[in-house]
Amino acid sequence: MYKIAVLPGDGIGPEIIPQAIKVLKAITKKYGVRFEFQEGLVGGAAIDAYGTALPEETLKLCQESQAILLGAVGGPKWDSLPPPQRPETAALLALRKGLGLYANIRPAYLFPALADSSPLKKEVVEGTDLLILRELTGGLYFGEKKRERTATGEVAWDTLIYTSEEIERILRLGFELARERRRKLTSVDKANVLITSRLWRETAEKLAQEYPDVELEHMYVDNCAMQLIRRPRQFDVLVMENTFGDILSDLASVLSGSIGMLPSASIGGKTALYEPVHGSAPDIAGQKKANPLATILSAALMLRISFKMEQAARDIENAVNRVLEQGYRTLDILSEGTTLVNTEEMGDLVRQAVEEG
Ligand SMILES: NC(=O)c1ccc[n+]([C@@H]2O[C@H](COP(=O)([O-])OP(=O)(O)OC[C@H]3O[C@@H](n4cnc5c(N)ncnc54)[C@H](O)[C@@H]3O)[C@@H](O)[C@H]2O)c1
Ligand SMILES: CC(C)[C@H](C(=O)O)[C@@H](O)C(=O)O
Ligand SMILES: [Mg+2]
């Protein structure tokens, strides 16, 4: 039996999470495993109830669970709070850091049926199958930050800082992941300007000696942004600093049709966190428009990575593929000749496809 902490969070979080739970329940029946789902409050929802974005109770629940499934946190209601109290910092970044989840795996794959859903040309996005590996507990996000008055105004700074150990462990995982895929690793940096990037690049070169079977290339982050939408098929695994990974993964989501399609896994600690790459989407919250597939695919990653249930993970991915092949779409991926469904209907369709598959 596996204990799963379920943290719906804010905005569309409470709409998409139940869809993934449905699908996981179908898996329990099919494979005779048991999942114990325990819900916790996080983010703005927790601020409203307890005055803090990550209540002690929720943290304890996460620490005691084998895996965590999170919707999203944040929204306009809490945007004016001082930065350390905001849902993003006090809940999400605190969870990632506190649980030691230094590696964020964000696969961007185009389901063939969605070739017409991307605003990019079909010829460009077809065949996209890449994986962004984002360093998650260091870099610009976690260096010293401060804001102070000066004689004439104010000054503020954020610091990008990395130890060679932090760089090495994320790069090593990059090489390992590339080994399981098409054996190409693109190390993304800004070594023409940043000194942390030079340490990053040298560390990559050194590690490459241990992985002669993996092709290592270095690419500047600005060029990488351009290459990703110009010729995405050139990429297999890309590894990068925290902020670079945040930005490039949203960009890569366009290759998969929509940000509503991109799952993620954050690993490296005793437990692991699974969440869609997108946020709480306040602009569509409460309207049944949200695409739950990123969350459902995150649940598949949970089965694969945390529970070593490869076949069950594939069952979910195949079920998503079949539902898309049958022409069902949420609004964000709707194209000519396809059938519009809402969040819940999409969840039901995938659950049914898992049961029948
Ligand atoms: N992991 C997280 O919890 C997380 C991630 C990113 C942003 N956020 C927070 O979410 C809030 C909104 O941020 P944002 O608007 O910049 O980013 P967002 O990802 O929430 O939304 C960006 C755009 O994508 C659309 N979108 C996102 N997810 C979708 C889905 N599943 N289906 C269909 N459309 C979807 C939204 O409607 C919006 O137009 C902010 O408070 C931000 O800090 C949280
Ligand atoms: C909400 C925010 C703190 C978060 C990040 O920047 O890491 C989000 O954008 C993400 O990509 O998971
Ligand atoms: Mg982001």
UniProtKB/TrEMBL annotation:
Binds 1 Mg(2+) or Mn(2+) ion per subunit. Transmembrane segments: none annotated. It is found in: Cytoplasm. Substrate binds at R96, R106, R134, D222. Catalyzes the oxidation of 3-carboxy-2-hydroxy-4-methylpentanoate (3-isopropylmalate) to 3-carboxy-4-methyl-2-oxopentanoate. The product decarboxylates to 4-methyl-2 oxopentanoate. This is 3-isopropylmalate dehydrogenase. One of its GO terms (biological process) is L-leucine biosynthetic process. Mg(2+) binds at D222, D246, D250. The gene is leuB. It comes from Thermanaeromonas toyohensis ToBE. One of its GO terms (molecular function) is magnesium ion binding.
